[in-house]
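# nightly structure sweep
# worker-07 picked up a monomer target from the shared queue
# config: single-sequence mode, recycle default, output format = structure tokens
# input follows
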Amino acid sequence: MTLPHRVLLVEGRKPSGKRLAPTLEPEYNLVTARTRREALARIKEIPPVVVVLDAPSLRFSRRRFCKTLEEEAIDIPVLLLHEDNPPPDHVNARAYLQYPFSPQKLINRISWLLPAPEGEILCRGELTLNVKRRSIIKGDRERHLTPKQAHLLELFMRHPGEVLTREFLMKRVWDTDFVDDTRTLDVHIHWVRDAIEEDTRSPEYLHTVRGVGYCFKVPGGREQV
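# output follows
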């Protein structure tokens, strides 16, 4: 029997009817904390695989908490539950979920962050690609990709900073040496940009190298393997 994943829920004082713990307890090996100090102690005792921060109920700085994890080299994905729109950009969480949401959506988002076989999850900057599920998550947004779109994005994320030629991409994704007509590639590049970019006309990640191909760059050089 597979033991359930250990998940830490950091949840402040709330009316019993609004607490999240009852939703998560049947799904995970759930541990809880109410303060920053208690949460860090829980993490150091037995590290969870995911930390869920219920931001509206907390009385401590979420930004400082995530910064502490980063400074102490604690690589645990943090899911921030928030009420802001757009999500706060000063908190270095792996993923975000905005209130209101259903219990199932919360479980789905946590499940998305659970450990996967080596090489199945790729993280670059604010992007996280689940290769097996063909899903890309950025902030509060999650998109499902077609097999070709996912393969294309996976190649870019595995080769950050490298110029990938049209010939290379056509061979690897479509298994063809024919490059006289690359409209199919161009259309798929547009779809990938639509999934990962805020503005497809001024991309931050996926750049065109005229006459050659494309280059995937992480804004600010914030790469995480």
